[in-house]
Design goal:
The chain has nine helices and five strands, in the order αααβββαβαβαααα. Helix 2 crosses helix 3. The chain is globular, with a radius of gyration of 19 Å.
Length: 281
């Protein structure tokens, strides 16, 4: 019973931002249609409709459904990145969960991005919203990509979804020495992660055309690779995320072959890094 309640709470917390996302794409979609689209595992159609109506489809209503009893391991983390200046990789990671349609079936994508160089370093695809299918595999991918030793003291920032404060996720971030952070009701507090959702879905996955879970996972890997290594960013001096990281890390790189905007951007990052550091534990 306790485990089922835990799963229900996790799903409800993540349904709110997903409903809000659907309302942006489909402003007049009914609760009945959203139920068919999202196919929640822990509630029936009538209960889902009441849940949507009571919440007003808005993220700001999520606190009405937050269970705060310690027995469920529910925690609300403060926003640790509001006034922070990120000066290097492995300092701040932002994460979010979004939906992805394949025909009448809905799947869920989880991303973790390094805020400094906009590189996707953790990702997963699933057919449900359970923690073991969403945030945990994405976090394990981050460990594989960056290494445990480099994650100590790093901030992991997200919305208020239950998958980010459940016992298993908190234990893993604690063991890694990471600092948990969450939004405080304002959408823009996780805007980088939300913008990434749209880029991967609309610019890569929908054109790729996956037909089932197997092809979705394969094409998601391809989309991440293409984004990290092939998409130049204006904010990164017109370099790709991977190239920008390599250039910043390599102190011996000659700047003669780089665009002036890139050289200036790198120099600005280094000046900031020398003047201000992110607090670590």
């Amino acid at each position: 019973m306790l485990k089922r309640r835990k799963y229900k709470n996790e799903e409800q917390q993540q349904l709110i931002p997903l409903i809000d996302e659907i309302r942006i794409d489909h402003p007049r979609m009914s609760a009945k249609d959203m139920y068919i689209k999202l196919q929640p595992c822990t509630m029936g159609r009538d209960q889902f409709e009441h849940f949507c109506l009571d919440s007003g489809y808005r993220v700001k209503k999520v606190k009405n459904y937050r269970v705060t009893t310690n027995s469920l391991g529910v925690t609300r983390f403060p926003n640790m990145i509001k006034d922070i200046e990120v000066t290097g990789v492995n300092q701040v990671f932002v994460s979010d969960i979004t939906y992805f349609d394949i025909g009448a079936k809905v799947f869920y994508l989880t991303f973790i991005m390094d805020l400094f160089n906009r590189e996707i370093v953790g990702w997963s695809a699933s057919d449900n919203l359970r923690t073991e299918s969403t945030t945990l595999p994405a976090l394990h991918r981050l460990i594989k990509e960056r290494g445990k030793v480099n994650l100590r003291g790093a901030i992991i920032h997200s919305d208020g979804g239950g998958q980010y404060y459940c016992t298993e996720f908190k234990k893993l971030t604690h063991d890694l020495g990471m600092i948990n952070s969450m939004t405080e009701e304002k959408v823009y507090e996780n805007s980088h992660a939300e913008r990434l959702n749209g880029i991967i879905k609309n610019n890569y996955l929908y054109p790729y055309g996956p037909t089932n879970m197997t092809s979705l996972k394969k094409l998601l890997d391809k989309a991440v690779l293409m984004y990290n290594t092939g998409k130049p960013h204006k904010a990164l001096g017109k370099l790709t995320p991977s190239k920008f990281r390599d250039t910043i890390d390599n102190e011996n790189n000659s700047s003669s072959y780089l665009p002036l905007s890139t050289v200036n951007h790198i120099n600005n990052k280094r000046v900031k890094s020398s003047n201000k550091k992110v607090n670590v534990i």
